[in-house]
Amino acid sequence: MGNNNKCVDFFATELSYIYNPDIRETATEILRAAPDYFLVIPSSTTGKYHPEDEITVGGKALHTKRVVFLVRELGKMDNLQPKPHDLLVAAALVHDLFFKDVPERKHSTSIHPELLRKYTEKDLGHLPYYTEILDIAEKHSGRWGTTAAQRPKQKLKADKMLHVADYIASRRPIHVHVSSAGGKRKANVKK
Q1: Picking from 6-20, 22-36, 139-153, which range would have the lowest pLDDT averaged per residue?
Q2: Within a 10 A sphere around the Cβ of 114, how many other Cβ atoms?
Q3: Rounded to an integer, what distance in angstroms lies between the CA atom of residue 43 and that of residue 40?
Q4: Domains of the chain with CATH codes
Q5: Which positions ≥6 away from 107 have C-beta within 8 Å?
Q6: Is 13 a residue whose pLDDT tops 50?
Q7: pTM
Q8: How many angstroms separate the Cα of 92 from the Cα of each of 40, 66, 145?
Q9: Is 128 helix (H, G, I), strand (E, B) or coil?
Q10: Residues 29-68, buried b or exposed e (16+ Cβ, 10 A)?
Q11: Does residue 63 surpass a pLDDT of 50?
């Protein structure tokens, strides 16, 4: 499908957190399908919610790194087993890949959680764990999801963990420091 190796390279450290080779390979292929705009768009086109360093060039990619950091921390807190951990990290990596339904759109679309499946299922839907990864990724909007498919199911921890991580990472008063160059991660919470 896609050939966005820049996206794969940018998230190499985060991909290394996925221990299951099938889940890691599927996440890698989904990242390769990322539109060219993904690594350069801001996390918020309105500037309404996200931290200031995310409302500039590359903000969406920085936001994604923060969400991955936070889901891993939530997973540690909840003692997630390896497979759910890997699925959650993969879903965090791809949750915002397709933010616009048409390239010329200035703002995100409310159905952006569903665009990932729309644009990748035909070519990648056969990959192992594809469905499980997307089922979690599509629910990252939580109660603000505009369709039933976007709202977390109460029984699935991963759905809620991704939503909580995405929510925390998007709050202006909270700054989660992650290095875009990889290596050890630290969380600095500023109020």
Answers
A1: 139-153
A2: 20
A3: 9
A4: 5-38+48-169 (1.10.3210)
A5: 45, 46, 100
A6: yes
A7: 0.81
A8: 18, 9, 16
A9: coil
A10: bbbbbbbeebbebbbbbeeeebbeebbeebbbbbbbbbbb
A11: yes
